[in-house]
Amino acid sequence: MSKFLLPENSVMLSSDFIYGVATASFQIEGGANNRLPCIWDTFCDTPNKIADGSNGKIACDHYTLWQQDIELIESFGVDAYRLSISWPRVINKSGELNQEGVNFYLGILDKLKAKNIKAFVTLYHWDLPQHLEDNGGWLNRETAYRFQEYADLISQAFGDRVYSYVTLNEPFCSAYLGYEAGIHAPGIVGKEYGKKAAHHLLLAHGLAMQVLTKNSPDTLNGIVLNFTPCYPASNKSEDKFAAEFADDYFNQWYIKPVFDGQYPEILSQLPKEHQPDILEGDLAIISHPTDFLGVNFYTRAIYRADEQEIFFQIDPPEPRTDIGWEIYPQAFTELLTSLNETYTLPPIYITENGAAMDDKIIDGAVNDLDRIDYYNKHLNAVHNAIEQGVNIKGYFAWSLMDNFEWAEGYLKRFGIVYVDYETQVRTIKASGYAYKNLISQR
Ligand code: IFM
Fold first, then answer.
1. Which of 63, 102, 253, 412 could cross-link 405 (Cys pair, CB 3.0–4.6 Å)?
2. Using a 6 Å CB cutoff, which residues line ligand 1?
3. How far is CA 384 from CA 100, 284, 304, 320, in A?
4. Run means of pLDDT, 10 residues per run, the chain, 442 residues
5. Is the whole-model pTM more than 0.85?
6. Ligand 1 centroid distance, CA of 405 (Å)
7. Which domains does the chain have, with CATH numbers?
């Protein structure tokens, strides 16, 4: 059996380092008839938006199979499970709790608790209720207040079953991919929208932090940000400038307001009509103290200067994963040390890391040595960051199982468990056994 190898004295081999697996509601649940529609249902119904024309109506049918899925999670020996709550499943159109939806999650949380598995609960992993989008979605400031109300109700309903709350998962993706590039739901295109949506998302985070701090002072409450570190294509000063600008635009834009209470300086260089509508007091709300920062990392990006657009991303070099993302673990260590130097941060959890590979199931087994290699290198990259003084408390593999990979549909497989979507049979991949082995070594 292939193994992940960390240095013998690594703190990542001590029992207080948390290991977990992660999923998200729309990507695994299905059960679409038992909830309100969300923006991803609508996006999937729009021709040519999803590579294989699929949708999330059934997905991994976790809505039916959740009990056996929790047994599967337990079989890895993990300390924690990171899941997300489907907002349109738990809140009805008039803003009240939908008890049937809440009960679904109470069942999951109770079973996790009984098995001593810590629940890391993300409140927003992109499935905005469609009726809120019909009212302007994240371009409407009011949506931030609807999110606060949802966070308030759900944190009261869940009580002490939760170990950690994440307000938002990857607001960059919601804002930029959803409201600027238009390749994610709701598919809005235009530079005049992205930063406006981003500001309302960050406001939603801060408002939710207020109620979580009040309702749930004993849980670890924070936000999950994704980072794709930006590297210059050459040593030329214009390429370096391009990479720095891109970094501010895509990465620092989301962390700086949360931990420094201000946007990067490029704000004033953006055309007025591209700038967000920032009201007095917003940045104080956004920078509400958090108990942790969740960091998601997959790859880096390389930029050269571009006269019109300032920066231009060049094609990533090899080696790449099946989704075309360069495998460059060094950027993970560099990211973590640079965040640690730039900001005064609470403890960090790696809330997602993993790889899409072209898995083949042969004689009932998936021998994904390429994914094992990816995990091995990235776990060691985290180890190196810890050695350099970064306070990292845990690591979550993305993902527990293959699932709906957004605009790629079911074509890209990120799981450490293989899912046969015809039969819904789950098969632990070689990477899953390697993960289990690492966890049991502690
Ligand atoms: O599948 C996604 C997840 O929903 C958010 N982070 C990145 C993953 C891989 O693209």
1. 412
2. 24, 27, 170, 296, 352, 398, 405, 414
3. 45, 34, 29, 22
4. 90 97 99 98 98 98 99 98 99 98 99 98 99 99 99 97 98 99 98 98 99 98 99 98 98 99 98 98 99 99 97 98 98 99 98 99 98 98 98 99 99 99 98 98 93
5. yes
6. 7
7. 11-440 (3.20.20.80)
